[in-house]
Write a structure and sequence with these properties.
The chain has one domain: P-loop containing nucleotide triphosphate hydrolases (Rossmann fold). Helix 1 packs across helix 8. By secondary structure, it is an alpha/beta fold. The protein is built from eight helices and nine strands.
Amino acid sequence: MYTLDEKDKIIVFTGPYGAGRKTVADMVGETLGMQRVIPYTTRNRRSVEVDGQDYHFVTEEEFTRMKRNQEFIETLELDTILYGIKESEIEDYLRENGKIYLILNHYGAEIVKKAYGEHVVRICIHADRDTILNNQRRRGYSDEVIQCHLHYYEEEMAYKDCCEHAFANNDLAHTVFNVSEVVDTYLNRNLIPDGSPTI
């Protein structure tokens, strides 16, 4: 088993579904050279999702086999759907470059925080309910799907106070810039203000 280095960092992006957490996370991850760890789930893939980019979509049989083999940090059942994160993937990616990120709901964020403690920095990306509602309508989601997305809105917002940092995603470019600045302080990259490496 890989023993985490003192400098290893796990950045967890959380917050209400539809607030832009994935968009922000992926842009920050690309900017700062972080590898994303993709969770596994037994739910059906939505039309806008890509297997291996949003989740690893697996059957219940596959999930059960991996769980039986103790491949997951911990598993979560939510609305009869199973979710899990492979311990080996977290540790392999950390061994490679010492910094990774995940995009999780508050249940998953709490699991990772309990497992890896001070190595984990949770960042809540949030928006008000009306903004999320309007954004999802513009994307063509049905009212039924939108209500499903908003079902855990209050819980996700309440978890904001447990996170190390929280950002209201009112302007994507500003949010990405501000989050990148904060995350960069945790990565020990030894950058000076103009972005040039120190000597």
